[in-house]
């Protein structure tokens, strides 16, 4: 029937997208949504593909279509992430609060709200209230409710680094590394914090640890490369032409 055909098109479109054939995957996912307009998964995947293609207005139109079919909290979360990309932080925060409320209304109550939702709300509020002493309030709440969630620890640590609370940020990154030892990002973020403290040796050591955990971590390569370039430039600038020995 129509439902089986829509699901088959969804799976085929997803496979093509993951294979790098984005336009073909998009067409099949749109066909899936046309066959069964209430299939939220297809609508969200189309919106996500338009986000990946940097066609944000088209993505928003598909999020609207998804909300016409369902009041699923996932739609609000994904649309909020797009609003954050567009730097429309107040709209993002509004969607995240809607997402949180719909999770709380479910069988899990307040405990049913995913940590990612609260962490992303923390980001939106931090960006929205840059001059406010309360801008960390939401991420602090997320950390209180999800003390060992890696995403919360990383986001909170990044914000503390931005406001200059390096000691607390580094403690959060250490905890993130304990909770998720196979993730390189706690070491990358700690390295960046040490760079802000002008402790280049500690920064370099942490970028190296990130690469030991994940030899394909592009962020660690980029940060380590930039650090080495800056040090080389500083030596050249300070050393003049006295390299003849």
Automatic annotation (TrEMBL):
Keyword tags: Membrane, Mitochondrion, Mitochondrion outer membrane, Repeat, TPR repeat, Transmembrane, Transmembrane helix
Matches recorded under SUPFAM superfamilies: HCP-like
SMART domains reported for this sequence: TPR (SM00028)
Topology within the bilayer: Single-pass membrane protein
Repeat (TPR) residue spans along the chain: 150-183, 184-217
PROSITE patterns, sorted: TPR (PS50005)
Annotated GO CC locations: mitochondrial outer membrane
Pfam families documented for this protein: TPR_16
Location of the protein in the cell: Mitochondrion outer membrane
Gene3D superfamilies according to UniProt: Tetratricopeptide repeat domain
Cross-referenced InterPro entries: TPR-like_helical_dom_sf, TPR_rpt
Similarity annotation: Belongs to the Tom70 family.
Name of protein: UDP-N-acetylglucosamine--peptide N-acetylglucosaminyltransferase SPINDLY
Species this chain originates from: Heterosigma akashiwo (Chromophytic alga)
